[in-house]
Specification:
Layout lengths: L1 H26 L7 H4 L14 E4 L5 H4 L6 E17 L8 E18 L5 H9 L11 H10 L3 E2 L7 E4 L11 E10 L5 E8 L7 E10 L4 E4 L11 E7 L2
Antiparallel strand pairs: 1-6, 2-3, 4-10, 5-6, 5-10, 6-7, 7-8, 8-9, 9-10
């Protein structure tokens, strides 16, 4: 009888131990519900490189600032005198007599009375609103130097400013050139992609709107990516930007 009671007590102890173990196991968090694992989003994509940051200005004044008019010309007829001489012999002992006669010949000459409009400076003044340093028939370089003395120039572009290119006689810009900055995009490598508009790029006051230009402030060089100048304008020197 004592042995039977001992066996029953042992079995009861085993059941109690198993029951407590199962309760503790139930209280443990499931690996699938682990807060550490749940906090990791394995489907998240890798961070993408930052897109270029662009800042632009309104283009509502484009039409108001561009009204093309060709250069005025006048045709002048000039008369030039042309001299002729003839000699005639009357006899063996006669002296030669010279006869001269004058004939007139007309030539036409075209005289330019006025330049085409708008030139690059009036256009960029109109677009930017910069109305300072009016020195009469000012060249782009002279305009920039005047604004530079007043502290209204900088090396970094901003929308609404005026880009001034240095004089380049080989490319038909003996006094420089001005362009209006429509948009500025940072490229992330220290350079900028600019959207520019300018007139008289062809010496006939035609307009080139929204030309893309890469600008490096470290070298002050510009490279035209689109527009009529793109085939050749790969390294034009910039003086800087005029700001309002």
């Amino acid at each position: 009888m004592a042995k039977l009671l001992f066996v029953c007590a042992a079995l009861a102890a085993v059941f109690v131990f198993l029951g407590s173990a199962s309760i503790k196991a139930a209280e443990l968090p499931s690996p699938r519900q682990s807060p550490i694992i749940a906090s990791i989003d394995t489907t998240a994509a890798l961070p993408l490189p930052e897109a270029p940051q662009c800042v632009s200005v309104s283009s509502l004044d484009r039409e108001q600032c561009y009204h093309r008019s060709p250069a005025t010309r006048r045709t002048v007829e000039q008369t030039a005198a042309v001299g002729t001489s003839s000699a005639s012999k009357h006899s063996k002992h006669s002296k030669k007599s010279a006869k001269s006669s004058k004939a007139s010949k007309k030539k036409s000459k075209h005289i330019v009375l006025g330049m085409c409009q708008p030139q690059c400076i009036p256009y960029t003044r109109c677009r930017s609103g910069v109305d300072t340093c009016r020195l009469g028939n000012t060249s782009p370089v002279q305009w920039y130097m005047c604004e530079h003395k007043s502290g209204r120039t900088q090396a970094l572009p901003e929308p609404g400013s005026v880009l001034v290119l240095a004089a380049n006689a080989r490319r038909g810009m003996p006094t420089g050139h001005t362009l209006y900055v429509e948009e500025v995009c940072t490229d992330g490598d220290g350079t900028y992609t600019l959207r520019l508009s300018h007139t008289n790029f062809d010496r006939a006051c035609s307009a080139d709107i929204d030309a893309k230009v890469r600008y490096d402030p470290r070298t002050m060089r510009t490279e035209f990516l689109t527009g009529p100048w793109a085939p050749w304008a790969k390294s034009l020197t910039a003086l800087g930007f005029i700001v309002d």
